[in-house]
Amino acid sequence: MTNSDNHNQGQHQNHAQGALAGLRVIDVSRVLGAPYCTQILADHGAEVIKIEPPQGDETRGWGPPFLGDAASYFLGLNRNKKGMSVDFSQEAGRELLLHMLETADVFVENFKVGTLEKWGIGQEMLAQRFPRLVHCRVSGFGADGPYGGRPGYDAAIQALSGIMSVNGERGGEPLRVGLPVVDMVTGLNAAIGVLLALQERNTSGKGQFVEAALYDCGVSLLHPHLPNFYLNGKVAKPSGNAHPNISPYDTYATKTGALFLAVGNNRQFATLCKILNISHVAEDPRFVSNAERNKNRDALKVELEAALVDHECAVIAETLVTSGVPCGAVRSIDEVVNDPHTHARGMIVDIEDYRGTGSPVKLSRTPASYRMKPPAFAEHTEELLAEAGLELKDYAAVLPREITT
Protein backbone atom coordinates (compact mmCIF):
# COMPACT_ATOMS: atom_id res chain seq x y z
CA MET A 1 0.00 0.00 0.00
CA THR A 2 1.43 3.39 -1.01
CA ASN A 3 1.55 6.53 1.12
CA SER A 4 -1.28 7.84 -1.05
CA ASP A 5 -3.35 4.72 -0.36
CA ASN A 6 -2.78 5.09 3.37
CA HIS A 7 -3.71 8.76 3.21
CA ASN A 8 -6.87 8.15 1.19
CA GLN A 9 -7.94 5.23 3.37
CA GLY A 10 -7.55 7.39 6.45
CA GLN A 11 -9.61 10.14 4.90
CA HIS A 12 -12.42 7.77 3.89
CA GLN A 13 -12.60 6.44 7.45
CA ASN A 14 -12.52 9.91 8.98
CA HIS A 15 -16.10 10.62 10.01
CA ALA A 16 -15.28 13.91 11.75
CA GLN A 17 -16.37 15.51 8.46
CA GLY A 18 -14.03 18.47 8.63
CA ALA A 19 -13.92 22.13 9.59
CA LEU A 20 -17.16 22.96 7.75
CA ALA A 21 -19.24 20.05 9.04
CA GLY A 22 -22.88 21.09 9.41
CA LEU A 23 -22.66 23.73 6.69
CA ARG A 24 -25.22 23.33 3.89
CA VAL A 25 -24.43 24.75 0.46
CA ILE A 26 -26.75 24.98 -2.54
CA ASP A 27 -24.59 25.16 -5.65
CA VAL A 28 -26.34 26.02 -8.91
CA SER A 29 -23.14 27.02 -10.68
CA ARG A 30 -21.51 25.58 -13.78
CA VAL A 31 -18.13 25.37 -15.53
CA LEU A 32 -15.08 26.21 -13.37
CA GLY A 33 -14.68 29.11 -10.92
CA ALA A 34 -17.78 28.62 -8.77
CA PRO A 35 -17.74 24.78 -8.85
CA TYR A 36 -14.11 24.93 -7.73
CA CYS A 37 -15.21 27.16 -4.83
CA THR A 38 -17.87 24.68 -3.73
CA GLN A 39 -15.51 21.70 -4.08
CA ILE A 40 -13.16 23.46 -1.64
CA LEU A 41 -16.06 23.84 0.81
CA ALA A 42 -17.14 20.24 0.23
CA ASP A 43 -13.65 18.82 0.79
CA HIS A 44 -13.65 20.44 4.21
CA GLY A 45 -16.95 18.96 5.30
CA ALA A 46 -19.73 21.12 3.90
CA GLU A 47 -22.78 19.34 2.50
CA VAL A 48 -22.89 20.60 -1.06
CA ILE A 49 -25.92 20.01 -3.27
CA LYS A 50 -25.10 20.66 -6.91
CA ILE A 51 -28.19 21.49 -8.96
CA GLU A 52 -27.58 21.33 -12.70
CA PRO A 53 -29.81 22.63 -15.51
CA PRO A 54 -31.75 20.07 -17.59
CA GLN A 55 -28.94 19.91 -20.15
CA GLY A 56 -26.35 19.41 -17.39
CA ASP A 57 -23.21 21.34 -16.56
CA GLU A 58 -21.60 21.80 -19.97
CA THR A 59 -18.24 20.64 -18.67
CA ARG A 60 -19.68 17.10 -18.56
CA GLY A 61 -19.09 17.15 -22.31
CA TRP A 62 -15.64 18.80 -22.33
CA GLY A 63 -13.73 15.67 -23.27
CA PRO A 64 -12.41 13.15 -23.99
CA PRO A 65 -11.37 11.62 -21.69
CA PHE A 66 -14.62 10.50 -20.04
CA LEU A 67 -15.61 8.43 -17.01
CA GLY A 68 -19.25 7.43 -17.26
CA ASP A 69 -21.32 10.44 -18.30
CA ALA A 70 -18.71 13.01 -17.31
CA ALA A 71 -15.55 14.39 -18.86
CA SER A 72 -12.37 14.73 -16.85
CA TYR A 73 -12.97 18.51 -16.74
CA PHE A 74 -16.19 18.02 -14.76
CA LEU A 75 -14.65 15.32 -12.56
CA GLY A 76 -11.87 17.66 -11.47
CA LEU A 77 -14.28 20.16 -9.89
CA ASN A 78 -17.28 18.33 -8.46
CA ARG A 79 -16.38 15.64 -5.93
CA ASN A 80 -18.02 15.41 -2.50
CA LYS A 81 -21.25 16.83 -3.93
CA LYS A 82 -24.73 15.38 -4.23
CA GLY A 83 -26.26 15.96 -7.64
CA MET A 84 -29.72 16.81 -8.87
CA SER A 85 -31.20 18.63 -11.85
CA VAL A 86 -33.96 21.25 -11.91
CA ASP A 87 -35.35 23.47 -14.63
CA PHE A 88 -35.27 26.95 -13.09
CA SER A 89 -36.83 28.56 -16.15
CA GLN A 90 -40.18 27.28 -14.88
CA GLU A 91 -41.92 28.70 -11.84
CA ALA A 92 -42.12 25.30 -10.15
CA GLY A 93 -38.34 24.95 -10.52
CA ARG A 94 -37.79 28.28 -8.82
CA GLU A 95 -40.19 27.30 -6.05
CA LEU A 96 -38.17 24.13 -5.53
CA LEU A 97 -34.95 26.16 -5.32
CA LEU A 98 -36.45 28.44 -2.67
CA HIS A 99 -37.56 25.40 -0.70
CA MET A 100 -33.99 24.04 -0.79
CA LEU A 101 -32.62 27.41 0.34
CA GLU A 102 -34.76 27.35 3.48
CA THR A 103 -32.25 25.02 5.13
CA ALA A 104 -29.12 26.36 3.43
CA ASP A 105 -26.28 28.44 4.85
CA VAL A 106 -24.68 29.30 1.50
CA PHE A 107 -26.00 29.79 -2.02
CA VAL A 108 -23.43 29.80 -4.83
CA GLU A 109 -24.37 30.74 -8.38
CA ASN A 110 -22.83 32.11 -11.54
CA PHE A 111 -25.87 33.07 -13.55
CA LYS A 112 -25.43 35.97 -15.91
CA VAL A 113 -26.03 39.18 -13.97
CA GLY A 114 -29.76 39.97 -14.10
CA THR A 115 -31.00 36.40 -14.60
CA LEU A 116 -32.09 35.79 -11.00
CA GLU A 117 -33.60 39.25 -10.89
CA LYS A 118 -35.59 38.47 -14.04
CA TRP A 119 -36.92 35.37 -12.31
CA GLY A 120 -37.93 37.37 -9.23
CA ILE A 121 -35.37 35.79 -6.93
CA GLY A 122 -32.62 38.40 -7.00
CA GLN A 123 -30.21 39.47 -4.30
CA GLU A 124 -32.62 41.73 -2.40
CA MET A 125 -35.44 39.20 -2.38
CA LEU A 126 -33.16 36.41 -1.15
CA ALA A 127 -31.69 38.63 1.58
CA GLN A 128 -35.16 39.53 2.81
CA ARG A 129 -36.52 35.98 2.75
CA PHE A 130 -33.35 34.28 4.05
CA PRO A 131 -31.58 36.86 6.28
CA ARG A 132 -28.86 34.40 7.40
CA LEU A 133 -28.05 33.20 3.90
CA VAL A 134 -24.60 33.90 2.44
CA HIS A 135 -25.24 34.46 -1.27
CA CYS A 136 -22.11 34.13 -3.41
CA ARG A 137 -22.05 35.13 -7.06
CA VAL A 138 -19.18 34.45 -9.43
CA SER A 139 -19.37 36.65 -12.51
CA GLY A 140 -17.24 37.95 -15.33
CA PHE A 141 -17.07 41.67 -14.50
CA GLY A 142 -19.40 42.24 -11.58
CA ALA A 143 -22.71 44.05 -11.81
CA ASP A 144 -21.51 47.67 -11.95
CA GLY A 145 -18.90 49.68 -13.83
CA PRO A 146 -18.63 50.14 -17.61
CA TYR A 147 -18.34 46.37 -18.18
CA GLY A 148 -20.91 45.37 -15.56
CA GLY A 149 -23.09 42.45 -16.51
CA ARG A 150 -20.94 41.20 -19.36
CA PRO A 151 -20.12 37.49 -19.46
CA GLY A 152 -16.51 36.57 -18.75
CA TYR A 153 -14.26 33.70 -19.76
CA ASP A 154 -10.83 32.85 -18.42
CA ALA A 155 -8.80 33.40 -21.59
CA ALA A 156 -10.60 36.63 -22.45
CA ILE A 157 -9.99 37.94 -18.92
CA GLN A 158 -6.32 36.95 -19.18
CA ALA A 159 -6.20 39.22 -22.21
CA LEU A 160 -8.22 42.12 -20.76
CA SER A 161 -6.60 42.12 -17.32
CA GLY A 162 -3.04 42.32 -18.69
CA ILE A 163 -1.93 38.81 -17.76
CA MET A 164 -1.24 37.83 -21.36
CA SER A 165 0.76 41.02 -21.89
CA VAL A 166 3.44 39.92 -19.42
CA ASN A 167 3.42 36.22 -20.34
CA GLY A 168 5.41 34.75 -23.21
CA GLU A 169 8.95 34.72 -24.53
CA ARG A 170 11.03 37.89 -24.28
CA GLY A 171 10.47 39.90 -27.42
CA GLY A 172 7.62 37.60 -28.42
CA GLU A 173 3.86 37.94 -28.58
CA PRO A 174 1.60 37.93 -25.50
CA LEU A 175 0.64 34.40 -24.50
CA ARG A 176 -2.19 32.82 -22.54
CA VAL A 177 -1.09 31.07 -19.34
CA GLY A 178 -1.45 27.34 -20.00
CA LEU A 179 -4.02 26.75 -17.27
CA PRO A 180 -7.23 28.58 -16.29
CA VAL A 181 -5.48 30.66 -13.66
CA VAL A 182 -8.17 33.38 -13.53
CA ASP A 183 -11.01 30.90 -13.05
CA MET A 184 -9.08 29.03 -10.36
CA VAL A 185 -8.13 32.10 -8.35
CA THR A 186 -11.70 33.39 -8.66
CA GLY A 187 -12.90 30.13 -7.12
CA LEU A 188 -10.38 30.55 -4.32
CA ASN A 189 -11.45 34.14 -3.68
CA ALA A 190 -15.11 33.10 -3.74
CA ALA A 191 -14.40 30.45 -1.09
CA ILE A 192 -12.50 33.00 1.01
CA GLY A 193 -15.38 35.45 0.65
CA VAL A 194 -17.90 32.83 1.77
CA LEU A 195 -15.80 31.98 4.83
CA LEU A 196 -15.38 35.68 5.71
CA ALA A 197 -19.15 36.20 5.49
CA LEU A 198 -19.83 33.13 7.63
CA GLN A 199 -17.35 34.36 10.25
CA GLU A 200 -19.04 37.77 10.35
CA ARG A 201 -22.44 36.07 10.61
CA ASN A 202 -21.31 34.58 13.92
CA THR A 203 -21.33 38.14 15.30
CA SER A 204 -24.17 39.82 13.42
CA GLY A 205 -26.47 36.88 12.83
CA LYS A 206 -26.89 38.07 9.26
CA GLY A 207 -25.76 36.75 5.92
CA GLN A 208 -24.53 38.95 3.09
CA PHE A 209 -23.85 39.07 -0.62
CA VAL A 210 -20.40 37.90 -1.73
CA GLU A 211 -19.15 38.74 -5.20
CA ALA A 212 -16.08 37.34 -6.94
CA ALA A 213 -15.55 38.70 -10.46
CA LEU A 214 -13.07 37.20 -12.90
CA TYR A 215 -11.90 40.66 -14.00
CA ASP A 216 -11.09 41.77 -10.45
CA CYS A 217 -9.30 38.52 -9.72
CA GLY A 218 -7.29 38.76 -12.94
CA VAL A 219 -6.11 42.27 -12.06
CA SER A 220 -5.25 41.12 -8.53
CA LEU A 221 -2.78 38.59 -9.95
CA LEU A 222 -0.53 41.22 -11.55
CA HIS A 223 2.22 41.13 -8.94
CA PRO A 224 4.89 42.48 -9.13
CA HIS A 225 4.02 44.13 -12.43
CA LEU A 226 1.43 46.56 -11.02
CA PRO A 227 3.56 47.60 -8.00
CA ASN A 228 6.47 48.15 -10.40
CA PHE A 229 4.29 50.27 -12.67
CA TYR A 230 2.97 52.31 -9.74
CA LEU A 231 6.56 53.30 -8.90
CA ASN A 232 8.39 53.58 -12.22
CA GLY A 233 5.63 53.99 -14.82
CA LYS A 234 7.20 51.35 -17.06
CA VAL A 235 4.84 48.97 -18.85
CA ALA A 236 6.00 45.36 -18.43
CA LYS A 237 6.31 43.11 -21.46
CA PRO A 238 6.75 39.35 -21.85
CA SER A 239 10.02 38.22 -20.31
CA GLY A 240 9.96 34.47 -20.79
CA ASN A 241 10.72 32.61 -17.58
CA ALA A 242 12.78 35.45 -16.16
CA HIS A 243 11.59 37.46 -13.16
CA PRO A 244 11.37 41.24 -13.64
CA ASN A 245 12.89 41.99 -10.21
CA ILE A 246 15.17 39.08 -9.32
CA SER A 247 18.20 37.40 -10.93
CA PRO A 248 19.13 34.60 -11.36
CA TYR A 249 15.44 33.66 -11.55
CA ASP A 250 14.95 31.87 -14.86
CA THR A 251 15.37 28.56 -16.69
CA TYR A 252 18.93 27.53 -17.48
CA ALA A 253 20.09 24.78 -19.83
CA THR A 254 21.94 21.78 -18.39
CA LYS A 255 23.34 18.67 -20.05
CA THR A 256 19.98 16.86 -19.95
CA GLY A 257 17.21 19.41 -19.50
CA ALA A 258 16.02 22.78 -18.25
CA LEU A 259 16.68 23.80 -14.64
CA PHE A 260 14.80 26.62 -12.98
CA LEU A 261 16.84 28.67 -10.52
CA ALA A 262 15.02 30.94 -8.07
CA VAL A 263 17.87 32.64 -6.25
CA GLY A 264 16.56 35.36 -3.96
CA ASN A 265 19.56 36.58 -1.97
CA ASN A 266 23.34 36.91 -1.98
CA ARG A 267 23.91 33.92 0.30
CA GLN A 268 22.01 31.62 -2.05
CA PHE A 269 23.91 33.06 -5.01
CA ALA A 270 27.29 32.47 -3.35
CA THR A 271 26.28 28.86 -2.58
CA LEU A 272 25.19 28.33 -6.19
CA CYS A 273 28.50 29.61 -7.52
CA LYS A 274 30.50 27.53 -5.04
CA ILE A 275 28.73 24.29 -6.02
CA LEU A 276 29.25 25.08 -9.71
CA ASN A 277 32.96 25.84 -9.05
CA ILE A 278 32.61 29.44 -10.23
CA SER A 279 33.03 31.33 -6.95
CA HIS A 280 34.75 34.11 -8.84
CA VAL A 281 31.39 34.93 -10.47
CA ALA A 282 29.89 35.71 -7.06
CA GLU A 283 32.69 38.26 -6.53
CA ASP A 284 32.36 39.88 -9.95
CA PRO A 285 31.23 43.52 -9.55
CA ARG A 286 28.52 42.89 -12.13
CA PHE A 287 26.93 40.25 -9.92
CA VAL A 288 27.62 41.28 -6.30
CA SER A 289 24.01 42.25 -5.53
CA ASN A 290 20.58 41.46 -6.88
CA ALA A 291 20.33 44.96 -8.36
CA GLU A 292 23.60 44.43 -10.29
CA ARG A 293 22.66 40.89 -11.31
CA ASN A 294 19.33 42.19 -12.55
CA LYS A 295 21.05 44.79 -14.74
CA ASN A 296 23.52 42.20 -16.08
CA ARG A 297 21.22 39.19 -16.25
CA ASP A 298 22.16 38.25 -19.84
CA ALA A 299 25.87 38.07 -19.01
CA LEU A 300 25.07 36.12 -15.85
CA LYS A 301 23.03 33.57 -17.80
CA VAL A 302 26.02 32.94 -20.07
CA GLU A 303 28.25 32.28 -17.05
CA LEU A 304 25.77 29.96 -15.36
CA GLU A 305 24.91 27.91 -18.43
CA ALA A 306 28.62 27.46 -19.21
CA ALA A 307 29.00 25.95 -15.74
CA LEU A 308 25.83 23.84 -15.97
CA VAL A 309 26.50 22.30 -19.38
CA ASP A 310 28.26 19.23 -17.96
CA HIS A 311 25.71 18.53 -15.22
CA GLU A 312 22.76 16.10 -15.32
CA CYS A 313 19.67 18.21 -14.60
CA ALA A 314 18.09 16.00 -11.91
CA VAL A 315 21.41 15.43 -10.15
CA ILE A 316 22.49 19.07 -9.96
CA ALA A 317 18.96 20.11 -8.96
CA GLU A 318 19.07 17.72 -6.00
CA THR A 319 22.53 18.93 -4.98
CA LEU A 320 21.53 22.57 -5.15
CA VAL A 321 18.18 22.36 -3.38
CA THR A 322 19.58 20.27 -0.52
CA SER A 323 22.31 22.89 -0.16
CA GLY A 324 19.80 25.71 0.23
CA VAL A 325 19.56 26.97 -3.35
CA PRO A 326 15.90 27.13 -4.50
CA CYS A 327 15.55 25.37 -7.83
CA GLY A 328 13.72 22.64 -9.67
CA ALA A 329 14.03 20.56 -12.81
CA VAL A 330 11.31 21.42 -15.33
CA ARG A 331 9.10 18.32 -15.26
CA SER A 332 6.16 16.90 -17.19
CA ILE A 333 2.71 16.12 -15.77
CA ASP A 334 3.33 12.37 -15.59
CA GLU A 335 6.55 12.93 -13.66
CA VAL A 336 4.63 15.01 -11.10
CA VAL A 337 1.96 12.33 -10.68
CA ASN A 338 4.58 9.60 -10.25
CA ASP A 339 6.66 11.54 -7.70
CA PRO A 340 6.47 9.85 -4.26
CA HIS A 341 6.27 13.27 -2.62
CA THR A 342 3.05 14.05 -4.52
CA HIS A 343 1.53 10.92 -2.99
CA ALA A 344 3.04 11.47 0.45
CA ARG A 345 1.40 14.90 0.57
CA GLY A 346 -2.02 13.39 -0.20
CA MET A 347 -2.31 15.20 -3.52
CA ILE A 348 -3.65 12.17 -5.37
CA VAL A 349 -7.17 11.06 -4.41
CA ASP A 350 -8.66 7.70 -5.41
CA ILE A 351 -12.33 6.86 -4.82
CA GLU A 352 -13.40 3.69 -6.63
CA ASP A 353 -12.76 4.39 -10.33
CA TYR A 354 -12.31 8.15 -9.77
CA ARG A 355 -8.90 9.78 -9.42
CA GLY A 356 -8.60 13.44 -8.50
CA THR A 357 -6.25 16.06 -7.11
CA GLY A 358 -6.22 16.46 -3.34
CA SER A 359 -6.75 19.57 -1.28
CA PRO A 360 -3.63 21.68 -0.71
CA VAL A 361 -5.09 22.98 2.57
CA LYS A 362 -3.87 20.80 5.44
CA LEU A 363 -5.57 21.13 8.84
CA SER A 364 -4.22 19.18 11.80
CA ARG A 365 -7.48 18.28 13.60
CA THR A 366 -10.09 18.59 10.85
CA PRO A 367 -8.43 17.61 7.58
CA ALA A 368 -10.09 17.52 4.21
CA SER A 369 -11.94 14.28 3.48
CA TYR A 370 -12.87 12.63 0.22
CA ARG A 371 -16.26 11.02 0.74
CA MET A 372 -17.92 10.87 -2.66
CA LYS A 373 -16.77 10.82 -6.25
CA PRO A 374 -18.43 13.42 -8.53
CA PRO A 375 -22.13 12.65 -9.02
CA ALA A 376 -23.63 11.22 -12.17
CA PHE A 377 -26.15 13.57 -13.72
CA ALA A 378 -29.10 14.08 -11.32
CA GLU A 379 -27.90 11.07 -9.31
CA HIS A 380 -29.31 12.13 -5.94
CA THR A 381 -32.50 13.91 -7.06
CA GLU A 382 -34.95 11.47 -5.46
CA GLU A 383 -32.92 11.19 -2.27
CA LEU A 384 -32.71 14.97 -1.83
CA LEU A 385 -36.41 15.50 -2.48
CA ALA A 386 -37.26 12.84 0.09
CA GLU A 387 -34.95 14.45 2.64
CA ALA A 388 -36.74 17.75 2.03
CA GLY A 389 -40.13 16.10 2.53
CA LEU A 390 -41.16 16.73 -1.07
CA GLU A 391 -43.02 14.46 -3.47
CA LEU A 392 -41.39 13.60 -6.77
CA LYS A 393 -44.71 13.82 -8.60
CA ASP A 394 -45.25 17.41 -7.48
CA TYR A 395 -42.16 18.58 -9.37
CA ALA A 396 -42.12 16.14 -12.28
CA ALA A 397 -42.37 18.95 -14.84
CA VAL A 398 -39.05 20.50 -13.75
CA LEU A 399 -37.06 17.31 -13.10
CA PRO A 400 -35.19 15.13 -15.61
CA ARG A 401 -37.46 12.78 -17.56
CA GLU A 402 -35.34 9.75 -16.65
CA ILE A 403 -36.08 10.45 -12.96
CA THR A 404 -39.83 10.86 -13.28
CA THR A 405 -40.67 8.08 -15.74
How does the SSE layout of this entry go?
Layout: H1 3-13, E1 24-27, H2 33-43, E2 47-52, E3 66-67, E4 70-71, H3 72-75, E5 81-85, H4 91-101, E6 106-109, H5 115-118, H6 123-129, E7 134-139, H7 154-160, H8 181-204, E8 209-213, H9 214-220, H10 225-232, E9 249-253, E10 258-262, H11 266-275, H12 279-283, H13 290-295, H14 297-308, H15 313-321, E11 327-329, H16 333-338, H17 340-344, E12 348-351, E13 354-357, H18 381-387, H19 401-404
Parallel strand pairs: 1-2, 1-6, 2-5, 6-7, 7-8
Antiparallel strand pairs: 3-4, 9-10, 10-11, 12-13
How would you describe what is shown here?
The chain has 19 helices and 13 strands. It is of the alpha/beta class and 405 residues long. Helix 8 crosses helix 9.
**Rg, Cα atoms, Å:** 25 Å
Strand order of the largest sheet: 5-2-1-6-7-8
- Tell me the β content: 5-15%
**What is the approximate shape?**
elongated
Secondary-structure-based class equals alpha/beta
Main beta sheet strand tally, sense and closure: 6 strands, parallel
The N- to C-terminal Cα distance equals 44 Å
State the helicity in percent bands.
Answer: 25-40%
Poorly predicted parts? 1-15
Structure summary, number of beta strands: 13
Q: How much is the average pLDDT?
A: 94
Helical element count? 19
Q: Tags for this entry?
A:
three-stranded antiparallel sheet, 13 strands, disordered N terminus, alpha/beta, six-stranded parallel sheet, elongated
Give a short synopsis of this structure.
The chain is of the alpha/beta class and 405 residues long. Helix content is 39%, strand content 14%. The strands form four sheets. It has a six-stranded parallel sheet with strand order 5-2-1-6-7-8, sandwiched between helices.
